[in-house]
Backbone:
């Protein structure tokens, strides 16, 4: 009995000691390497192959690892990257690229024209059905002219083609692209631990301006309630896309909140194929009943940009500011339109909203209140993102939804293509002959002016036909510790870590 | 021998039922792993190709039996969202959850015994009453709320630890254990309160039994009676509770891992569910079920160690 008691005592003392001692040794290892820890809301995808990545959250990070022949900058221009120069023939059918001298891959090898041809051919390959980059189905031939020059010939003229040359260039020798990330970007991939973190390190042989910070750790914070806590505790130094409420909680701390735009078309998307939304007057009535400014004020103290069609300001020349005021709040007009459509007493519908996006839920709630003024009763139904994708987006089995749609490329077509009546991702079932014609004309257009004017016509049709109740391009708030600076907003859904630096 | 065989058969049947129900649930709820992977960029062609590749177009029973067949041969499949074998993923994350709940278990056991005995010995005293009130309050607090409070008070105000700054066990084991203490306390607190209350009342109840009176009449000291006779008997319901509490902690770690940003089994399970990553979810749930069954068997064995009367007829 005695010995047993002693044994128990010994074990418990040892255990306490282990815990206490290990707590002391847990101090941070000292290193002089500059580093930053950035919180991200979800893990990255399984594949590291830049051509197969689909999730926006993965793409925006891999912007730092991979580069194409050209690369977008924060003003929305396409600058030469792996290529040093390019020429576009007058008929917009032949694109000639000259390789930049001495561009190195992360494994130390030099980029050759063969690597470029390999990467483009890989994305244009149709042996598995669709090519990896849909626009590449237009490629007729990829020819290596000499060891510095590559020529791409298209079947049909496409003036948007250059923006697809942001497609990552990877080494032809890497046959394990799924699990081994080798690019040419300012950061190289080091490691990942599922649901924990992803680590990037500066690429010291980068051809351009090298990154400032040596090590970037992307820490996954799955619980949005913990973001502010983790910022304030110093566990993370930066978090992209905090909410207005979280930004308010950070005031008075050592964090600055930077404001940009999300580059999303947030709207109440209407299923144009179901009654009563198949009637243009009903859709217009909803547009007149919704007060967008009130939504902005409620959500983020007025931050954000009101939009009137499927285009946001970062698109520059394509964006039509005048459409944002096309429908101003007018309850009488809305009621009249409803009466004309035979809904003088109003109607009810279900508004399906993905539950993981607070900003869309907030918008939906304000809309529901505003629609009561015209006797329209909307009931919000929150669904999981996965359910949203299968029921609403893919199945088109819904009445209305509030969500944000982004552009994958810096081209107007990236936002407008889906509203073609035949488009596979036309989840609102928009069907307009005039639109289809205008869009086809835009694609066939030779001069830039011609194209731009047709794209603008598309936008105007979406607005006038009230395809959706367009709301806003949301404000994007980035929380950054005041020990760092240099964050830049892009007109695309990307994050550029290479410009960040430590404030001395 | 017969008893062991019986246990083994029950275990296999239970596993079958659990796995079937989970599989069934997943095929009934909306959501499609292929679509989940493709997101808003999905086109009907790409979706169809991926579904075919993932084997989702097979009939339900074919899919189920393929899965269960390979599970019993030790092949848990490959995760949809990570592209690595599920067994590798679990082996990587299991130590985290086991250490977390292990620390919580030790905390719970130590405090249960200390508080329970103290309260029983000073029954009705001021400390006993305070303990009872505090216990009531703690019992009503869910672990995740305790977690948030601990993060706020000990993390942000007192700065004893840095919320969210989890360190991997491969990198720095000491730092790893140190970080897990706060979440372990958060999980252990409510259980600790319940268990010590149980031990207290169980001890008091034993104190009124005849054999205790006999022990006193033999001239034993209060201490001797308490530790050598009463405690042994009083521990039986407490041990049962501990075992239940431990399995509960494993399940509850799902929530606490979320609050403290710990990339353990619970985190993997949760994201697996929202990504419709079936192979991961199925494997983890079946392992949890297995774990609970094994834990219950262990409790039976511990009973026999505490109370020799149970040894023969098992």
Residues:
């Amino acid at each position: 009995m005695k010995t047993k008691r002693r044994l128990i005592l010994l074990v418990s003392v040892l255990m306490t000691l282990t815990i206490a001692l290990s707590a002391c040794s847990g101090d941070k290892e000292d290193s002089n390497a500059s580093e930053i820890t950035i919180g991200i809301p979800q893990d990255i995808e399984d594949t590291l192959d830049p051509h197969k990545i689909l999730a926006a959250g993965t793409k925006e990070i891999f912007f730092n690892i991979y580069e194409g022949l050209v690369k977008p900058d924060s003003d929305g221009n396409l600058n030469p990257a792996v290529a040093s120069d390019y020429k576009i023939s007058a008929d917009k059918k032949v694109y000639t690229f000259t390789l930049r001298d001495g561009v190195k891959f992360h494994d130390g090898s030099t980029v050759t024209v063969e690597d470029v041809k390999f990467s483009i051919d890989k994305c244009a390959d149709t042996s598995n059905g669709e090519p990896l980059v849909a626009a590449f189905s237009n490629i007729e031939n990829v020819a290596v002219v000499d060891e510095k020059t590559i020529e791409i010939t298209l079947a049909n003229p496409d003036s948007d083609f250059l923006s697809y040359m942001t497609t990552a260039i990877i080494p032809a020798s890497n046959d394990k692209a799924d699990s081994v990330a080798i690019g040419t970007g300012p950061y190289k991939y080091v490691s990942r631990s599922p649901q924990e973190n992803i680590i990037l390190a500066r690429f010291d042989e980068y051809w351009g301006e090298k990154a400032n910070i040596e090590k970037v750790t992307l820490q996954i914070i799955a619980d949005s309630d913990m973001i502010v806590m983790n910022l304030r505790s110093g566990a993370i130094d930066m978090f992209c896309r905090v909410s207005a409420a979280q930004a308010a909680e950070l005031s008075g701390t050592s964090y600055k909140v930077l404001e940009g735009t999300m580059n999303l078309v947030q709207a109440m998307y209407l299923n144009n194929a179901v009654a009563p939304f198949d009637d243009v007057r009903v859709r217009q009535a909803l547009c007149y009943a919704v007060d967008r400014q009130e939504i902005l004020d409620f959500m983020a103290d007025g931050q954000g940009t009101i939009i009137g069609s499927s285009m946001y300001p970062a698109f520059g020349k394509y964006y039509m500011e005048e459409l944002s005021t096309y429908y101003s709040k007018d309850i009488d007009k809305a009621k009249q339109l409803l009466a004309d459509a035979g809904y003088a007493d109003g109607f009810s519908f279900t508004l399906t909203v993905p539950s993981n996006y607070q900003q869309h839920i907030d918008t939906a709630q304000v809309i529901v209140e505003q629609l009561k003024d015209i006797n329209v009763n909307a009931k919000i139904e929150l669904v999981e993102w996965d359910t949203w994708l299968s029921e609403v987006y893919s199945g088109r089995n819904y009445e209305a939804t509030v969500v944000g749609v982004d552009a994958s490329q810096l081209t107007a077509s990236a936002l407008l293509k889906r509203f073609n009546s035949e488009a596979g991702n036309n989840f609102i079932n928009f069907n307009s002959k005039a639109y289809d014609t205008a869009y086809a004309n835009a694609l066939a257009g030779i001069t830039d002016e011609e194209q731009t004017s047709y794209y603008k016509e598309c936008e105007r049709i979406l607005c006038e036909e009230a395809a959706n109740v367009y709301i806003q391009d949301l404000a994007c708030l980035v929380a950054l510790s005041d020990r760092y600076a240099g964050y830049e907003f892009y007109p695309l859904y990307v994050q550029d870590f290479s410009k960040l630096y430590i404030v001395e | 021998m017969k008893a062991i065989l019986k246990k083994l058969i029950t275990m296999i049947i239970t596993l079958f039922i659990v796995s079937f129900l989970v599989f069934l649930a997943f095929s009934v709820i909306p959501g499609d792993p292929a679509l989940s992977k493709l997101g808003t960029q999905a086109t009907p062609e790409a979706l169809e190709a991926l579904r075919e590749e993932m084997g989702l177009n097979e009939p339900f029973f074919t899919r189920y039996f393929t899965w269960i067949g390979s599970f019993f041969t030790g092949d848990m499949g490959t995760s949809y969202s990570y592209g690595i074998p599920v067994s590798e993923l679990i082996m990587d994350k299991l130590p985290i959850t086991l250490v977390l709940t292990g620390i919580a278990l030790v905390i719970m056991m130590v405090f249960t015994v200390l508080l329970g005995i103290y309260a029983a010995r000073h029954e009705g005293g001021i400390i006993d009453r305070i303990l009872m009130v505090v216990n009531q309050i703690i019992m009503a607090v869910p672990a995740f709320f305790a977690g948030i409070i601990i993060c706020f008070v000990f993390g942000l105000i007192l700065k004893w630890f840095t919320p969210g700054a989890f360190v991997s066990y491969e990198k720095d084991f000491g730092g790893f254990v140190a970080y897990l203490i706060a979440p372990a306390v958060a999980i252990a607190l409510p259980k600790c309160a319940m268990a010590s209350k149980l031990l207290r009342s169980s001890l008091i109840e034993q104190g009124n039994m005849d054999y205790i009176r006999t022990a006193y009449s033999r001239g034993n000291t209060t201490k001797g009676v308490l530790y050598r006779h009463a405690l042994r008997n009083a521990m039986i319901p407490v041990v049962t509770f501990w075992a239940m509490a431990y399995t509960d902690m494993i399940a509850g770690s799902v929530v606490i891992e979320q609050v403290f940003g710990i990339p353990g089994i619970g985190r993997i399970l949760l994201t697996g569910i929202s990504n419709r990553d079936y192979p991961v979810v199925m494997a983890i749930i079946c392992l949890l079920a297995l774990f609970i069954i094994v834990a219950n068997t262990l409790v039976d064995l511990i009973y026999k160690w505490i109370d020799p009367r149970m040894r023969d007829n098992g």
In short: Residues 2-54+61-66 of chain B form one domain.
